[in-house]
Amino acid sequence: MRTISTYTLGCKVNQYDTEAMLEAFERAGYAPVDFGQPSDVCLVNTCTVTGTGDQKSLKTIRRVAREQPGCAIVVCGCLAQREAEQLLAMDGVRLVVGVQRRAEVVELLEQALLDGQPINAVAPLKGAGFENLFVSRHEGKTRATMKLQEGCDRYCAYCIIPTVRGPVRSMALKDVRAEAERLAAAGYRELVLTGIHLASYGRGTDDTLLDAIRAAHDVDGVARVRLGSLEPVVVTEAFARALSEMPGIMRQFHLSLQSGSATVLKRMRRRYTPEEYSKAVGTLRKYMPDCAVTTDVIAGFPGETEAEFEETVEFVRAVRLARIHVFPYSRRKGTVADAMPGHLPEAVKRARARKLIEVGNQLERDYVSSMLGTVQPVLFEQPAGEPGCGLAEGYTGQYIRVRAKADPGDILPVRLASLDGTLALGEVETDTGGRYQ
Ligand code: SF4
């Protein structure tokens, strides 16, 4: 039997796409093996959001070619969309697919092998529709990712994604429902709704993001729905109130910030001010007081002064964000920011990123500490501790990692009793009348 291994760089959307392509290979009779094991085919799903994404993608392809000279390498994803010819010329690469035509990946590879000629299958993105990729299985047994939306047309100054992922397109509501039903039937208790720019879901149609969230949430057997990255502009009173009325919506909201300085946000071409961001957080807390708001921040955008950087540090503290993903600014050819004056030395960007990471760690400890003593439903995902000790780990709705006596797959009410770093140690509450079973 022919075998396939996969390696994914980048975001949850890429993980979803890899899983869909792997399932297509399995349907065609390929057996999956772990990455690093000898395989007939290796699929590398690349990322180009930062220079590090590019380098790791290229390094992975070179490693496979070096370690497995006979392996047919399939390269797909964002870097493939951007640099198809360069990738096609690399040793071992038989097929390059970008961010479309992934549903045809098996046929394309078999054609390339038959012809003895590598194929560049990168398709132009203008006018592209939403490509339904069916995924029925995910890493782990309890939580599944759904990709509802592709593309972005915001063109933030630093970001290459609109160029490589193309225009906004959305999964039809009936397909959202059908995929949620399929995943619930396969036993997944929690769905994570993602997209390249989820806030744009439904653009150009009559459907809204709220419609899509409701469609997934209302499926029988879906116990929990977690939302991917949002932007402050979608958080209206009506949106927050509607979410608070859906019991299965997890109280963790990722609101992209990128900078807490009004002047930097403007240069970044983001479409909100720090005040509007604070207001969105306030609106979420008004309807869901214990929600966790997490974010992304870029350190060292071109021209960012020490004072502007400090504004960001003060802002994230003042808003009491629960977790921050920090990225040092990465220069991307073809973006508006690349041509801006005032690029900062790497050492300055790294030092600012380090400071923000420290601030973020403290904010995370503060947030998790503030939840001690409360009872939260936890979806247990995997066994923990010594084999046979009966402990398992999972997450609360706010994405606090919890360890307690439970079985993977259970959703149980847990009193958060103490902390080990940011891991909460808890005790299952038995007196709930089965509310969380
Ligand atoms: S919203 Fe901005 S940062 Fe996000 S993908 Fe679109 S262009 Fe990039």
Primary descriptors:
437 residues; alpha/beta; Rossmann fold; pyruvate-formate lyase- activating enzyme; OB fold (Dihydrolipoamide Acetyltransferase, E2P); 3 domains; six-stranded parallel sheet; five-stranded mixed β-barrel; 13 helices; 34% helix; globular; disordered C terminus; binds iron/sulfur cluster
Question: Can you characterise this structure?
Answer:
With 437 residues, the chain is of the alpha/beta class. The chain folds into 3 domains: 3-120, Rossmann fold, CATH 3.40.50.12160; 143-370, tm_1862 like domain (pyruvate-formate lyase- activating enzyme); 375-428, OB fold (Dihydrolipoamide Acetyltransferase, E2P) (Beta Barrel), CATH 2.40.50. It has helices spanning 12-27, 51-67, 78-82, 84-88, 105-115, 161-165, 173-185, 209-217, 237-244, 262-268, 274-287, 306-319, 346-370; strands at residues 3-8, 31-32, 41-46, 72-77, 93-96, 119-120, 143-150, 169-170, 190-195, 224-227, 252-254, 292-299, 323-328, 375-383, 391-396, 401-405, 411-420, 423-428. Residues 433-437 have low confidence and may be disordered.
Rg over CA atoms: 22 Å
- Which CATH C-level class of the largest domain is it? Alpha Beta
Given as residue ranges, the uncertain stretches (5+ residues, pLDDT < 50) are: 433-437
CATH topology of the largest domain: pyruvate-formate lyase- activating enzyme
| The named CATH superfamily of the largest domain | tm_1862 like domain
- Strand fraction band? 15-25%
| Overall body shape | globular
Residue-averaged pLDDT = 93
Could you give the count of β-strands? 18
Q: How are the strands ordered across the major sheet?
A: 2-1-3-4-5-6
CATH architecture of the largest domain: Alpha-Beta Horseshoe
In whole angstroms, the N-to-C terminal distance is 42 Å
Instruction: Please state the structural category.
Output: alpha/beta
Bound molecules: iron/sulfur cluster
